[in-house]
Amino acid sequence: MALALMVFVLVALGFGRPRAITEGRWVFGMGVWFSLGVLSLILIAALWVGERILPHGPALEVRAHARQWAWSFSHPGAEGPVTSEGVLHIPAGRPVDVLITSTDVIHSFWVPQLGGKMDAIPGRENRLRLEAARPGTYEGLCAEFCGLEHAAMRFEVIAHDPAQWPPVSPEGPRP
Amino acid sequence: MNTPMNTPANTPLTPHDPASIPANPPQRALGLHRELDRVWRNAPGLRGQITAVSHTTLGLRFMVTAFLFFGIGGLLAMLIRAQLATPNGAFLDTALYNQIFTMHGSIMMFLFAIPMLEGLAMYLLPKMLGTRDLAFPRLSALGYWCYLLGGLILIAALLAGVAPGEGWFMYTPLSGKTYSPGINADVWLLGVTFVEISALSAAIELMVSILRLRAPGMKLTQMPLFAWYMLGTAAMMLAGFPPLILGSVLLEMERAFGWPFFDPERGGDPLLWQHLFWLFGHPEVYIIFLPAAGVLSTVIPVLCRTQIVGYGAIVAAILGMVFLSFGLWVHHMFAVGIPHLALAFFSAASMLVAVPTAVQIFAWIATLWRGRPELKLPMLYILGFFFTFVMGGLTGVMLAVVPFNWQAHDTAFVTAHLHYVLIGGFVFPMLAGVAWWMPLMSGRRRVRGLGEAAFWFILVGFHGTFFLMHLTGLMGMARRIPSYPENPEWTALNLSSSFFGFVMTIGFALFAIDLILQAGFGKRSVRNPWKAPSLDWAMALPPPNYNFASLPGPALQQAGAEAAMLALAKGEGLLPGAPRGRREILVTSVGTARPEHVAILPVNTGLPLLLALAISAFVLLMLAGLYTLAPLALIPVVTLIWIWARRAMAPLDATPIEVAPGLVLPVQPGDGGTLTRSGLVSLLFANGTFFASLLFGLAFISLVSPGPPRPLWPADRTVLLATGAVLALLAMAALGLPRALSHIETGRRAGAGLPVAFAANLLALALLLALGLGQLPDPTRHAADAVRAALVAYVGLHAAIATLFTAFALDQARRGELAPGRAGALRNAGLWQSYTLAAAAVTLAALWAQEAAS
């Protein structure tokens, strides 16, 4: 914002009387060094934030499997994996890795309130680290255009109280 | 005619130091005009429209057609906004909605932006560089017809309801046969590839014209900045379009013949498509931005009554952008599961490319500071550009930050960002450029007031529409959804966006009306109404097809448009008039523009239209699924190209021409440095990137792709012998052609080298056919088999073309047309032959490495 304002002000000031300018100061000072400085700061910040949200350490693994045009999920239960359609169950307050796959075309797993998105690509398995801070229901959707019913390809993530994990029934107690 | 042109053939060729070229004696301007006009003008009536090859006519036609497609794309955008205005839009069904947004993107990219910049460059460059036409006038016309016919195929599909609906980047496997069984995706692949012929031909043409047609003494380091921008653009097009064309060809082969390049079940990889597509798609953004920046760098200093600040730095920034933009494609794929180190690298590269942009922006602002800016209509659009593009650039930096990208990727935020960049960075500068050059193109003055009204409608409408979409995207609205019944909180924003979208449309309609009024009813404009210094204004309005009655030497280039105009019209420059009744231009050296020879350009012809029609027959047969008939359509294509080449031969009257007192230039360059040769080198450069992309595909499928293991292919002795024989035969031809050439150049007959080369090529082609049909594993079995077959087919195609090249030279030898200085066809055949040999050797090595790696 400040940068945009600065450019606007400079353009506006340009409409004054002609004045002598130093080419080097504008082209190299502003064009090269100033922009490089700003960009480096942003890049460092980005790498730092990016590093923090990368998967570090072990996490609970759940699976998300996409197909045209629905999601099926599975999470570890008391007796082996429990599968569910359209609803992903995770525990709140601890890191979860979603292993994302697809049967047919490219989809993308995205829960806006929980973090970034990751594509579901046929033939590959992608990993996305999530963490829900508190129990609740979060909306999720397919974020890569995948054909006719793309817009209807929604799902829910239910984050359970860690004390009640794993949930007893596939539906689980709605928090 | 009182021309001193009765050139004695034995005048010694003077050393051509451009600085010391004397002026020709002045003549009557009107007489010169009549003489030139008779030679250069288009034929009258409809026939003239079909046979025109003039860059002025074709440049205008490209731009008008591009604006018509812009209108169609805009109408589609209005349909999208109408659908999204309410949560439960019942206006379009989902399938139609998908087709409409796919076509909106494809039309704006391939049928508006690229042809628009090609048209502007084709129209302006010869005028700015001080010459009479582009290097290959018939190629300009061919490009136009391919563009028009390809565009019509896409529009016809839209009207018939079978337009592609897979999104404008056509991700596989969604665009594969299984999930898109109709011909919709084929329409995109074949139609867009057909249109790309025009992009490639324009790139070759602009490249060669900028490097070799500049007026004598106009050094590379002195040429107008617009030419530098277009040189960068042309280079990027030559390197950027081949990966897209390759991707389209491979995907079409998968759809038509089941070669599983992108099918994960048979070892293919959907990510290969994404790599190939964005390898084109990201440079594409800069291909679009550079010409627009070129307009800004041209217009801003003149409207500020000063010189541009930092010419050298801007040139460096252009070159930096050309290189950096090819290192960025992965940033469209941040969410596909790329290793994190690679993400950090591409994130940094994405940010680095902002530096050359910043250099240019600050150079423009410094120019504003140094001069006295005048708030004319083009300046309004330039301010619109600053306002919009800087905001788009900032959201771009936000998107380059990986964590943010994961959040905003594929939301309305991205849609908003790309419209800020494309409309801010391309459309506003282009509108400024159109307003700027309209007096040149129409020869008339603008109607007052309308243009300003259009500007404010467009500006307010644009920001109203897209600023709000940032917010909608941050609230989580994904792209490409037709309805959002469960998210009532998005309604108000969407409704406002739709409202302002229609405001913007009113603005564009006003702009179009303004142009029509100006072209039809404006008052005659004075010459050079902006008092610009560049050569594009040193001519009558609207310009005659020949641009300049005589070509400006260094003195007239530095005199400025005002002073040069009269001297040029009176024939005081070089090569005045058309006393020999031929279309003559000067060819100069690449670096310092030392005059080298006089080139004779082709006259009006219907051949480009016929060739484009023949190619469209091939495309339509492929679309109809008549794969066995389609190759038959190649027969007229080859025949027409043959006729094309025969008509391009050097004139029989090759008497050297005195272009200025004491400066006598040959019609045929002694060293073979013809324009055709430069064009062939450019084509081979593009061909080389195509080949490199194919090798990248081979490596990617063999090494990176998951999926079922590659079945072994134990290449037996027959295969080894056959490939060895192919290489030996191609090498034999590659040795034979230079031998024949040296015979010709020393005044002898071609000798055995030529027929031997022809026979060797034919035999190599036959062997490759036998190998491909009989010995290679079935290409539908596994992607590795498919890509191997594709490589062999690539070599086969080159051997076939080499056969045709040698056949053409053989035919010339039979007719006795090969003579010293007239053996261009033989020389170019040799070049093609060497490339073919190299490609075959690299292919063999790559296939061997593929087997060795398993």
Automatic annotation (TrEMBL), chain A:
Pfam families: COX2 (PF00116)
Spans traversing the lipid bilayer: 26-49
Recorded topology in the membrane: Multi-pass membrane protein
Residue span, Cytochrome oxidase subunit II copper A binding domain: 57-171
Catalytic activity: 4 Fe(II)-[cytochrome c] + O2 + 8 H(+)(in) = 4 Fe(III)-[cytochrome c] + 2 H2O + 4 H(+)(out)
InterPro entries: CcO_II (IPR045187), CcO_II-like_C (IPR002429), Copper_CuA (IPR001505), Cupredoxin (IPR008972), Cyt_c_oxidase_su2 (IPR014222)
SUPFAM superfamilies from the UniProt entry: Cupredoxins
Domain of life according to the entry: Bacteria
Keywords: Copper, Electron transport, Membrane, Metal-binding, Respiratory chain, Transmembrane, Transmembrane helix, Transport
Subcellular localization, as worded in the UniProt entry: Membrane
Primary location recorded for the protein, binned into one broad class: membrane
Record has Thylakoid as a keyword: no
Family membership: Belongs to the cytochrome c oxidase subunit 2 family.
Function: Subunits I and II form the functional core of the enzyme complex. Electrons originating in cytochrome c are transferred via heme a and Cu(A) to the binuclear center formed by heme a3 and Cu(B).
Protein name per its UniProtKB record: Cytochrome aa3 subunit 2
Source organism of the structure: Ancylobacter polymorphus
Lineage: Bacteria, Pseudomonadati, Pseudomonadota, Alphaproteobacteria, Hyphomicrobiales
From TrEMBL, chain B:
Highest taxon above the source species: Bacteria
Domain called Cytochrome oxidase subunit I profile: residue spans: 34-555
Pfam family for this entry, one: COX1
Membrane topology: Multi-pass membrane protein
EC number(s) per entry: 7.1.1.9
Pathway the protein contributes to: Energy metabolism; oxidative phosphorylation
Biased composition (Polar residues): 1-13
Annotated InterPro entries: Cyt_c_oxase-like_su1_dom (IPR023616), Cyt_c_oxase-like_su1_sf (IPR036927), Cyt_C_Oxase_1 (IPR000883), Cyt_c_Oxase_su1_BS (IPR023615), Cyt_c_oxidase_su1_bac (IPR014241)
Keyword Membrane (UniProt): yes
Membrane as UniProt keyword: yes
Transmembrane segment boundaries: 58-80, 100-124, 144-163, 187-213, 225-251, 285-304, 311-330, 342-368, 380-406, 418-441, 453-478, 498-517, 598-620, 626-645, 683-704, 719-738, 750-771, 791-810, 831-849
Subcellular location: Cell membrane
Key words of the record: Cell membrane, Copper, Electron transport, Heme, Iron, Membrane, Metal-binding, Respiratory chain, Translocase, Transmembrane, Transmembrane helix, Transport
Catalysis: reaction(s): 4 Fe(II)-[cytochrome c] + O2 + 8 H(+)(in) = 4 Fe(III)-[cytochrome c] + 2 H2O + 4 H(+)(out)
Annotated segments matching region Disordered: 1-26
PANTHER family: CYTOCHROME BO(3) UBIQUINOL OXIDASE SUBUNIT 1, CYTOCHROME C OXIDASE SUBUNIT 1
Family: Belongs to the heme-copper respiratory oxidase family.
Protein name: cytochrome-c oxidase
Species, as recorded: Ancylobacter polymorphus
